[in-house]
Write a structure and sequence with these properties.
Radius of gyration: 16 Å
Helix content: 40-55%
Strand order of the largest sheet: 1-2
Number of domains: 1
Distance between the termini: 35 Å
Number of helices: 7
Largest sheet: 2 strands, antiparallel
Order of helices and strands: HHHHHHEEH
Shape: globular
Oligomer: single chain
Strand content: under 5%
C-alpha cells in the first residue's frame, strides 16, 4: 500500500499536503515569486510524504465508493476529505484524500490554481456509505 501512495505522489508533482498546489499559488505566481512557490511546494510535499496514515484512512473510504463515467461537479476533494474524516473519525488532509482517490482509480479534474480536485465519485454510493456509519443505522443484535 505504501508503494501505491509513493507512486501517486511521484506521478503528480503538484500534489501537496494542502491539495493541488500551494496556498495562494495564483497570487504568488502573478507576483513572480516562483522561488517561494517552489519552497512551499517542497515543504508541503514532505509533509504529505509523511502522511501515509491519512492516505490509508482515505483509501479505505474511497475504496467503498462507486465510480461515475463523468466527473461529479457537485463536490470537491475538500468536501470528500471532510466526509472521510467523519467516517474514519480521524484527520485526513486534502492532499492525502486526493492521493487516495487517484490510487483507488478515480478520474480527476484539476483547475491549475485551485487546491481542490473534482472526481467521478458516485454521490449515491457516498450517501450510502455515510448512512451505514450513522448512529442507529447498524442492526441491533
Amino acid at each position: 500500500m505504501e508503494e501505491k501512495f509513493r507512486q501517486v505522489l511521484y506521478k503528480n508533482p503538484k500534489l501537496t499536503y494542502f491539495g493541488w498546489g500551494v496556498p495562494e499559488e495564483l497570487k504568488l505566481y502573478r507576483e513572480g515569486k516562483k522561488e517561494e512557490i517552489e519552497a512551499r511546494r517542497v515543504e508541503l510535499r514532505e509533509q504529505l510524504f509523511n502522511a501515509f496514515d491519512e492516505f490509508e484512512r482515505a483509501y479505505k473510504f474511497c475504496s467503498q465508493l462507486e465510480k461515475l463515467t463523468k466527473i461529479n461537479p457537485k463536490h470537491t476533494s475538500f468536501s470528500y476529505k471532510q466526509h472521510a474524516e467523519e467516517y474514519s473519525e480521524a484527520k485526513v488532509s486534502n492532499g492525502a484524500f486526493i492521493a487516495a482517490a487517484i490510487s483507488a482509480g478515480f478520474k480527476k479534474r484539476v483547475d491549475e490554481f485551485n487546491p481542490n480536485v473534482w472526481f467521478n465519485i458516485n454521490e449515491r454510493s457516498l450517501v450510502r456509505l455515510l448512512n451505514s456509519k450513522a448512529p442507529g443505522s447498524q442492526p441491533t443484535e
